């Protein structure tokens, strides 16, 4: 660590906050944690008090208010700010502000311009295309003109037809939209014009920009990721392998993540799976090097059943599922890699200290997200009190949770009801699946809603999906 | 039968409510020279466009913002020890004793007289659009409720469900929640007056009107 | 009993002197008072002859003293005279000046607006053996003699709308309009369609009204006066005033008073003097053509000689206007010239029909235009050298001729050819499709061209399109960044309480967000430079007439210094910036009113620059865009030099629009009063940047003059839109796109790109 010791403000809550607190302690850094009035029962609050004392926790009005975070940073004398994931993690304005304010702070994450350029789907697609990285067929610019849009859509239908896609589909998206807002599917050219106009009007109303993207809709794809790590200055890029995040809830929320992305040794694929993994890793690394990406980040890909990969987007932050990659990674043959620590260490300016040759991968890691939701009711979130939450410690198991295990916990209203992340490691997929199954079966999770309703969780869903991990 | 007189006596015994002025967000506090015993004003003007008496200023990120009295009243406590210090969100700064107005007393007593419909769970509540519209255009008391009628939208963890009203039929006389606020389970959402009791309720109102004297 | 009546009259005269002069009447007033008192005391002891003799003496004394007082009348005294309930009102004039009249649309309080009076009136004239009735349309404010329902002559928007309606009727019927200005100012409310908007509409219509308009000014209170005062001949009563603002109003501004406070009378007195509001001043400036003399202390109801004189003046003025455009008959022309040092009865002898034929009507409007164009030359400093001015005049003519050749002569031919070619092309296309398609598709199938096409399509769907456009980031990157975006601080949105907006970081807000709250869309004010560079592609080299400079034409005390300060701080010579520009390959002339220079007030220099911009746009056939960064109104320190810019600029705009141009106005921040009530408000295409305010008077002035409290956002852009004043509310970040859309879709036929 550099001579002048850093103090990290953790601008997040819940499970990631606890992981960052522990990582800071591990790195010998001071930290400050935040909480809102409604969130004081969260595990990160007690952990912050336990490891940092009363002074390590500040009450703020909202996690969403940058002014609150920065005002506390100044009052507490913090020198760096960790956004975790969600909230300000991919907000380039926040990153820019931390760097540009009169009392600058180190943003633990990439430089603000990297967040901006890779945070926008159009500019990401254009960077990718300019480097010859494969992207989803369709427009790479906001389309304003109706005739141009129709021509594109017609070409897309013809293209899919030629590719042997049975019933082609075109996506019309508001280019300024996000999070599934302002997206519609078109299955038939006759309906295109009306859908285009509707989306354009929607975009105009909600995002103040009429621009529309037109893309091929790819069905039945697998969702793969490449974990990229780099030091400040944007040199020395390494990858920490691939992940497969195809098991998701209805709202496209990831529920099981696996590293590596495919296991051609154990499962037969209709395409060259090893080749696909190699290609996406190579392309991701090349793109990171080209833009001078300078932190931990994830390149997200979709892979079609024919084994064609397309770059979807880049997540310029540490991700929830970083733990599975860490679980299979070996640095100079040793386990115990912690990407959360690496993220902080590198963002604060330390050199990487190793190269791709020093990294190897061993076994299979599976992460289960345990969430209070009801898979039978379209994954409706469940709020209530958790009475018991227990599991048996195992050498192959890591659980990250902010839910206290020694006291009852009321799930707060304003956040997603995530309870824990459980990461299981196995020598191979079969063993990992078996271990995961036994963990899920032994897990004790009891609670009740205020109105007396039964506790709901996704454990059953996880068990069911566990059977077919990595099959494609 | 409601004992209005008795209730009024009870309220008269402590005819005020104490409002804690807490820091709405973090920042450095400067009090505006208020002292216990000072009189303060709440919002005023034809359109409530004039803010109340400035109690303190809170400076956060080089933005100095006034903190105004929400209601008319008297300052009873000022945390002067915080002067010039950085405070966290929710830190109590001062306490104002607000003497109940006639309207507020009526609401208090009505809460006892009306049939209350409580929130079944902690959530944000809204009226369904048709009723919301009617309340906005024609005011409270324009909406007649029946048992089982769909009245509320419950918004919880970004999901919305419809909540039907259960209880005696009648008109909505009072609304106790604000759009977008979290309401705890068991807190009343609305007060309903069965139509045959309307005159009774009116009596209560007139009685309070005549018997309650507002403290200046 | 005659004596009693005459005594009552004397008492009334005494009271009048007291009203007008107050304590200043001093010794004269005391003398009149004591002599009248003495007479009344002793009257019973006197015989009738003695009484009569003494009475005549007394009357002579009164007349003498009144004359003495009249010699010392200050401008503020004139204001009091004009406002006195005994002053002649329009009804008195109708009764006594015209031979017969019928009031239209109103009887006393039974009128849509009793402060606006419309009447058909006529002069009965004897021409040889025949008796001829000469009709005119009389339009003017009616103050009455203190009746409350007359509202002191303060006309509501619908009153002015009525006036406009009957101006049009006069035009249809081809009879002259006699307008009378008896108003302290318009009633400043924004109800449909809003005071400013209605006055602007009136001015726009009068700018090209095809009948003679003769205007008589008694009390000319700023914008309210202009609503009926744009005339071919402007007469002014000798004791009237014509001013940009009431002296009290000026004093309140001068003293920097807050709501409800009264300025000290001495200050109002001083302002009345500084503002140069008298008939003599305005005659000297050239804003009125003649002064109609009144009796010593102003015309009152019983001054029959005055009415007779006014009658003569009215007939004479109408004759002059008509004569000038009709092709003058020799003898009557001579007579009229002689009549310039006239005797009223002589005027009556000159008869002239007041109807005009089509040619004469055109000439009338042309003459009116020239008359106003030539005004207020001395009230600005033209920094351009004589040579340069001459050159620019020539240039204007050259542009005009050039445009004519390019767009009218050759353009017409080219367009016709284009149309023919289009038709032929469409026919050919149809034939080709019908015949060619089956053949082509067969060929394609045979040669495998289909595959080739799909390769191309594939490329287009997967390769980078238009690499030269970079990353195509959606967020705007602005060419000009506000200096406010360089400060590390946060700003609270005014809607924070209602919309839950979080504090905004200044560099984000004033930089990337273009001053727009990202939560509720509230627009914070931005510098005009932001628009110049980010919307209008301003380049200093294409600015023109920057040498025309605001001055202090009334030598208003203390104003010269303030003006110097404004020039120094802004680096500009007036509040108006005019330049040519090109926006997405459409060329345009832009006139900007900058709020940073004396509040964006309009004086003689600004008016002239605006007119020159309109003329340039006309001769080059460019669209004309007025961007109002903010204007507080007419510059009061220039007095009527400022007010006269209202009709002047409207005439220029009207001419430009009639020539087939596109005149578009964009309001920002706060735009009030005179300019809105004239050359801005008359545009058929007015838009406002969100969160701006547009209106006639600010909330303070409204409360002061009407006693009405206005709700928050009373003058907000959306309110103005709801009232029909403006025609759209624009988001700042989209102005460029909207403007281009407007340039493409709006305006007349005579734009160079049509």
Rg of chain C over CA atoms, rounded to whole Å, is 31 Å
Average pLDDT over all residues of chain C: 89
Number of domains as seen in the coordinates of chain C: 3
In which range does the helix fraction of chain C lie?
40-55%
CATH fold category name of the largest domain in chain A: D-amino Acid Aminotransferase, Chain A, domain 1
| Rg for CA atoms of chain A | 23 Å
What's the architecture of the largest domain in chain A in CATH terms? Answer: 2-Layer Sandwich
**The CATH top-level class label of the largest domain in chain A:** Alpha Beta
Q: What would you note in describing this structure?
A:
- The complex is a heterotrimer of chains A (472), B (216) and C (754).
- Chain A is an alpha+beta fold.
- Helix content of chain A is 32%, strand content 25%.
- Chain A has three domains: 7-108, Rossmann fold (3-Layer(aba) Sandwich), CATH 3.40.50.20; 137-216, 2-Layer Sandwich (Dna Ligase, domain 1), CATH 3.30.1490.20; 222-466, ATP-grasp fold, B domain (D-amino Acid Aminotransferase, Chain A, domain 1).
- The two termini of chain A are 45 Å apart.
- Chain B has 216 residues and is an alpha+beta fold.
- Chain B folds into two domains: 14-99, OB fold (Dihydrolipoamide Acetyltransferase, E2P), CATH 2.40.50; 103-211, Beta Barrel (OB fold (Dihydrolipoamide Acetyltransferase, E2P)).
- Chain B contains four helices and 16 strands.
- Chain B has helices spanning 4-13, 102-113, 129-138, 198-211, and strands at 16-22, 27-31, 39-40, 54-60, 63-68, 73-78, 86-87, 92-99, 115-118, 123-127, 144-145, 150-156, 159-164, 170-175, 182-183, 188-193.
- A four-stranded antiparallel sheet of chain B has the order 1-8-6-3, with no helix packed on it. Chain B has a four-stranded antiparallel sheet with strand order 5-4-2-7, with no helix packed on it. In chain B, strands 9-16-14-11 form a four-stranded antiparallel sheet, with helices on one face.
- The longest helix of chain B is centred in the C-terminal third of the chain and has 14 residues, at 198-211.
- Chain B is globular, with a radius of gyration of 20 Å.
- Chain B starts with a helix and ends in a 5-residue tail after the last helix.
- The relative contact order of chain B is 0.17.
- The model of chain B has no long low-confidence stretch (mean pLDDT 87).
- By secondary structure, chain C is of the alpha/beta class.
- The chains are: A alpha+beta (472), B alpha+beta (216), C alpha/beta (754).
- Chain A binds chain C through residues 64-67, 93, 96-97, 100-102, 116-117, 120, 122-123, 126-127, 129-130, 134-135, 137-142, 152, 155-156, 158-159, 162, 175-176, 208-209, 211, 216, and chain C through 454, 457-458, 460-467, 469-474, 488, 490, 502-503, 505, 507-508, 512, 731, 733-734.
């Amino acid at each position: 660590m550099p001579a002048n010791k850093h103090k990290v403000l953790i601008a997040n809550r819940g499970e990631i906050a606890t992981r960052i607190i522990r990582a800071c302690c591990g790195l010998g850094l001071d930290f400050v944690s935040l909480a809102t009035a409604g969130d004081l029962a969260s595990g990160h609050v007690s952990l912050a008090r336990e490891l940092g004392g009363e002074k390590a926790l500040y009450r703020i009005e909202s996690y969403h208010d940058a002014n609150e975070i920065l005002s506390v940073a100044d009052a507490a004398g913090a020198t760096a700010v960790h956004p975790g994931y969600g909230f300000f993690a991919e907000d380039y304005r926040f990153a820019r502000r931390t760097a540009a304010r009169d009392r600058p702070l180190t943003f633990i994450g990439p430089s603000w311009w990297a967040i901006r350029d890779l945070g926008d789907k159009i500019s990401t697609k254009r960077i990718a295309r300019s480097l010859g990285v494969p992207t989803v067929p369709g427009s790479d610019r906001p389309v304003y003109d109706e005739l141009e849009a129709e021509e594109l859509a017609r070409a897309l239908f013809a293209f899919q037809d030629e590719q042997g896609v049975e019933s082609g589909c075109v996506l019309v998206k508001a280019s300024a939209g996000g999070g599934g807002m302002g997206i519609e599917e078109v299955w038939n050219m006759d309906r295109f014009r009306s859908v285009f106009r509707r989306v354009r009007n929607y975009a105009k109303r909600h995002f103040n920009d009429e621009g529309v993207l037109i893309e091929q809709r790819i069905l039945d794809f697998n969702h793969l990721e490449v974990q990229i790590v780099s030091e400040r200055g944007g040199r020395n890029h390494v990858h920490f392998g691939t992940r497969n995040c195809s098991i998701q809830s209805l709202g496209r929320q990831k529920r099981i993540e696996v590293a590596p992305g495919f296991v051609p040794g154990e499962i037969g694929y209709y395409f060259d799976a090893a080749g696909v993994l190699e290609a996406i890793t190579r392309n991701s690394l090349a793109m990171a090097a080209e833009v001078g990406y300078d932190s931990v980040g994830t390149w997200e890909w979709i892979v079609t059943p024919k084994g064609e990969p397309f770059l979807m987007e880049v997540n310029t932050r540490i991700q929830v599922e970083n733990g599975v990659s860490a679980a299979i990674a070996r640095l100079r043959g040793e386990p115990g890699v912690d990407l959360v620590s690496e993220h902080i260490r590198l963002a604060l300016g330390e050199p990487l200290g190793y190269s791709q040759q020093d990294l190897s991968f061993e076994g299979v890691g599976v992460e289960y997200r345990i969430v209070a939701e009801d898979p039978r009711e379209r994954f409706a979130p469940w709020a209530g009190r958790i009475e018991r939450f227990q599991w048996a410690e195992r050498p192959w198991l890591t659980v990250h949770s902010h839910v206290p295990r020694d006291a009852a916990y009321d799930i707060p209203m304003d956040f997603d009801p995530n309870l824990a992340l459980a990461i299981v490691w196995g020598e191979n997929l079969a063993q990992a699946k078996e271990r995961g199954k036994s963990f899920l079966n032994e897990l004790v999770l009891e609670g009740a809603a205020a109105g007396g309703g039964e506790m709901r969780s996704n454990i059953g869903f996880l068990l069911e999906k566990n059977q077919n991990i990595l099959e494609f | 039968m409601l004992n209005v007189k008795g209730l009024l006596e009870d309220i008269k015994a402590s005819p005020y409510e104490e409002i804690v002025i807490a820091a709405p967000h973090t920042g450095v506090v400067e009090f505006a020279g208020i002292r216990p015993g000072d009189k303060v004003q709440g919002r005023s003007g034809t359109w409530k466009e004039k803010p109340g008496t400035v109690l303190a200023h809170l400076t956060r990120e080089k933005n100095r913002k006034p903190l105004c009295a929400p209601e008319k009243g008297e300052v009873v406590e000022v945390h002067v020890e915080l002067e010039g210090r950085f405070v966290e969100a929710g830190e109590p700064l001062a306490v104002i004793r607000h003497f109940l107005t006639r309207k507020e007393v009526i609401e208090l007593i009505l809460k006892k007289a009306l049939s209350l419909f409580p929130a079944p769970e902690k959530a944000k509540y809204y009226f369904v659009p048709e009723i919301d519209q009617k309340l906005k255009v024609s005011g409270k008391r324009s909406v007649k409720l029946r048992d089982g009628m769909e009245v509320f939208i419950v918004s919880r963890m970004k999901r919305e469900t419809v909540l039907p009203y259960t209880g005696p039929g009648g008109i909505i006389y009072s609304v106790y929640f604000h759009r977008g606020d979290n309401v705890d389970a068991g807190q009343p959402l609305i007060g309903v007056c069965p139509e045959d009791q309307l005159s009774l309720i009116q009596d209560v109102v007139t009685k309070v009107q005549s018997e309650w004297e507002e403290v200046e | 009993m005659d004596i009693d009546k005459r005594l009552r009259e004397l008492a009334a005269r005494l009271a009048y002197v007291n009203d007008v002069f107050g304590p200043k009447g001093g010794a004269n007033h005391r003398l009149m008072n004591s002599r009248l008192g003495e007479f009344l005391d002793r009257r019973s002891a006197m015989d009738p002859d003695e009484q009569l003799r003494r009475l005549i003496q007394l009357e002579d004394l009164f007349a003498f003293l009144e004359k003495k007082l009249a010699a010392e009348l200050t401008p503020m005294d004139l204001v009091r005279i004009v406002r006195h309930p005994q002053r002649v009102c329009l009804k008195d004039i109708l009764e006594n000046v015209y031979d017969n009249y019928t009031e239209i649309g109103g009887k006393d309080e039974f009128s849509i607006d009793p402060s606006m009076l419309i009447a058909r009136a006529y002069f009965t004239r004897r021409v040889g053996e025949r008796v001829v009735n000469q009709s005119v349309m009389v339009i003017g404010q009616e103050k009455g003699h203190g009746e409350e329902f007359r509202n002191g002559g303060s006309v509501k928007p619908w009153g002015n709308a009525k006036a406009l309606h009957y101006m049009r009727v006069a035009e249809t019927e081809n009879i002259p309009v006699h307008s009378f200005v008896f108003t302290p100012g318009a009633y400043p409310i924004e109800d449909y369609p809003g005071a400013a908007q209605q006055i602007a509409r009136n001015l726009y219509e009068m700018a090209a009204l095809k009948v003679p308009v003769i205007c008589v000014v008694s009390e000319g209170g700023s914008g309210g006066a202009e609503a009926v005062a744009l005339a071919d001949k402007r007469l002014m009563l000798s004791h009237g005033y014509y001013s940009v603002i009431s002296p009290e109003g000026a004093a309140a501004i001068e003293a920097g008073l807050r709501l409800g406070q009264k300025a000290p009378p001495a200050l109002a007195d001083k302002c009345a003097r500084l503002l140069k509001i008298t008939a003599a001043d305005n005659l000297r400036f050239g804003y009125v053509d003649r002064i109609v003399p009144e009796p010593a202390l102003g015309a009152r109801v019983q001054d029959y000689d005055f009415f007779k004189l006014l009658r003569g003046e009215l007939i004479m003025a109408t004759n002059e206007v008509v004569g000038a455009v009709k092709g003058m008959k020799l003898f009557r022309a001579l007579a009229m010239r002689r009549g310039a040092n006239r005797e009223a009865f002589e005027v009556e002898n000159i008869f002239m029909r007041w109807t005009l034929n089509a040619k004469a009507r055109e000439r009338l409007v042309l003459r009116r235009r020239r008359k106003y164009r030539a005004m207020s030359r001395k009230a600005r400093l033209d920094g351009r050298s004589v040579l340069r001015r001459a050159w620019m005049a020539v240039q204007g003519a050259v542009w005009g001729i050039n445009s004519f050749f390019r767009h009218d002569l050759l353009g017409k031919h080219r367009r016709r050819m284009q149309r023919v070619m289009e038709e032929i092309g469409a026919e050919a296309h149809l034939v080709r499709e019908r015949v060619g398609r089956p053949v082509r598709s067969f060929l394609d199938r045979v040669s495998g061209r289909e595959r080739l096409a799909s390769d191309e399509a594939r490329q287009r769907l997967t390769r980078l399109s238009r690499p030269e456009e970079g990353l195509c980031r959606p967020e705007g990157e602005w060419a000009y960044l506000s200096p406010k975006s360089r400060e590390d601080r946060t700003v609270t949105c005014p809607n924070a309480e209602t919309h839950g907006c979080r504090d905004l970081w200044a560099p984000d807000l004033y930089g990337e967000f273009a001053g727009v709250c990202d939560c509720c869309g509230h627009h914070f004010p931005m510098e005009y430079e932001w628009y110049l560079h980010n919307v209008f592609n301003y380049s200093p080299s294409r600015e023109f007439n920057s040498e025309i400079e605001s001055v202090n034409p009334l030598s208003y005390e203390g104003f010269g210094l303030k003006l110097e300060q404004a020039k120094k701080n802004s680096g500009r010579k007036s509040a108006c910036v005019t330049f040519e520009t090109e926006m997405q390959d459409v060329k345009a002339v832009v006139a900007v009113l900058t709020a940073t220079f004396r509040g964006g007030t309009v004086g003689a220099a600004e008016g002239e620059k605006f007119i020159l911009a309109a003329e340039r746009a006309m001769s080059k056939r460019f669209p004309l865009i007025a961007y109002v960064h903010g204007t507080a109104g007419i510059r009061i320190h220039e007095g009527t030099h400022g007010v006269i810019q209202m009709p002047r600029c409207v005439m220029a705009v009207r001419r430009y629009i009639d020539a087939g141009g596109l005149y578009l106005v964009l309001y920002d921040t706060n735009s009030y009063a005179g300019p809105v009530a004239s050359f801005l408000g008359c545009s058929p295409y007015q838009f406002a940047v969100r969160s701006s305010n547009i209106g006639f008077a600010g909330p303070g002035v409204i409360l002061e003059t009407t006693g009405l409290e206005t709700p928050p956002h009373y003058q907000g852009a959306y309110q103005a839109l709801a009232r029909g004043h403006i025609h759209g509310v624009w988001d700042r970040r989209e102005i460029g796109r909207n403007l281009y859309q407007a340039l493409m879709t709006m305006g007349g036929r005579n734009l160079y790109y049509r």
